[in-house]
Amino acid sequence: MDRLPKTFVTPNTNYSTRNTVQIFWFLLYNILIVPLLFVGFHIAALFNHKIRRGIQGRGKLLQDIENAFPVLSPDEKRILFHCASLGEFEQVKPILKRIVEVIPQCKRIVTFFSPSGYEHVGQCPYLDLAIYLPFDSLRAIRQFLNRIRPSAVIISKHDIWPNLVWALHSRRIPIFLINATMPKDSLLLKPILRSFYRSVFSRLNFVAPASETDRQLFSNLLSPAQQVEVIGDTRFDQVYFRSQESFQKKLLPQDLVSGHVTVCLGSTWPSDEIHLFPAVIELFKEFPNLLLIIVPHEPSPKRVEEIRRFFENTKLNVKTFSQIQEEESNSYPAVIIVDRIGILANLYSYSQIAYVGGSFGPGVHNVMEPAACGNTVLFGPRILNSPEAQKLVELGAGAVVNSKQEVYQTLRKLLADPSVTKKKGQIAARFIEENLGATEAIINKISSMMAKKRES
């Protein structure tokens, strides 16, 4: 096993008890937890192709870095962003874009834990390199940091790995945790785990909780001397930035959407669809100018075909997004089933009313994207995971629907009175606009801390 990070060893007796606890957790994590995780991931990879792809991708990690940066200048700034998956990457995009503008000579590197982030990052003009984060062993982390040599590290939201944080701290590399959220019932706050995670979180240089409630919860894991500040959530900047882009993109023919009232059902699960589909079928009878866009959470060929068969039985004209893109036809559908990923946020620019899925299942997905595009936003009852959904309800720009009857009644009222729908959508968009600015605040913090590091 690699040697103990030097910051865990100090002659200052005032910290002896604290250091003893730190060393205990460090040894336990590396002697017991890391080997168990390693074995567990490899066993799981035998049955899960996603985990298997992640392990295979990490096998060429160091070579990918070598190919991207054959020579690393000691004077060159490199900022490393870590994102668990694609959703967290979307949150750091406005920061990446702004860094290009204010520190253009800085290299920008993003690491992912999940293949769903790494494989779908695409051609981002603000990135110099996208790679997997190595497995959290001491040796892998040391090799990785020796190759990358970051000037600062920014972790988006929650994906904290102990050895990574301990190693960065021992090298005096500033660590930022942004858009940080913590559920009230988080396991991190349980007595024994709280002690362990305090040994990790206390090494962060700056924590930016997403809300005051999150700040109070994080205080259980942080030391009084740490910099903690609620400066907003870059998700607001990102969804606003993307909504402005969306209005410029032409994903659907103008003839298809003009003259229609468009409802977008985004990130739907089967548990959502059993309430939504019967209601919208009834609404087509009353509102023949209705255009329905369905974006299933998992747009696999099987799921797309299941949805297609359901609506074709109603004799409605149904096409997939791919068919519309590939065919030249004057016969436009009443129902569009989206069979591609990564375009939902852009499609909200075509709709006036949106339903956000997951809210009859694990919890509502991103309600900020449709709000940024000026949609009235509906969702099922499970919204405790989304303060933004709760705020939209409070503002009158969103509504909870608990059954197919409520879906029908709520949509019917909105479709029957476009002026009310438009007003609610304007309130939703204003909610996003009033919460902009976190990106600039984070950039200022990064620049300040990096300057202090150079001076020390």
What do these coordinates show?
The chain has 456 residues and is α/β, with parallel strands linked by helices. It has two domains: 58-232 and 437-455, Rossmann fold (3-Layer(aba) Sandwich); 242-433, Glycogen Phosphorylase B (Rossmann fold, 3-Layer(aba) Sandwich), CATH 3.40.50. The protein has 20 helices and 14 strands. Strand 6, helix 9 and strand 7 (227-228) form a beta-alpha-beta unit. Helix 3 packs parallel to helix 6, helix 4 packs across helix 10 and helix 6 (138-148) packs across helix 7 (162-170). The protein is elongated, with a radius of gyration of 24 Å.
Q: Can you give the helix content as a percent range? A: 40-55%
Q: What is the class of the largest domain in the CATH system?
A: Alpha Beta
CATH architecture of the largest domain: 3-Layer(aba) Sandwich
Annotated CATH topology of the largest domain: Rossmann fold
Q: What distance lies between the first and last C-alpha atoms, to the nearest angstrom?
A: 31 Å
The CATH superfamily title of the largest domain:
3-Deoxy-D-manno-octulosonic-acid transferase, N-terminal domain
Biggest beta sheet attributes: 7 strands, parallel
Strand order of the largest sheet: 3-2-1-4-5-6-7
Number of strands: 14
What count of helical segments does DSSP give? 20
Instruction: Give the integer mean of the pLDDT values.
Output: 90
Low-confidence stretches: 10-15
Tell me the domain tally.
2
> What radius of gyration results from the CA coordinates?
24 Å
Helices and strands: which structural class? alpha/beta
Shape: elongated
Q: Could you tell me the strand content as a percent range?
A: 5-15%
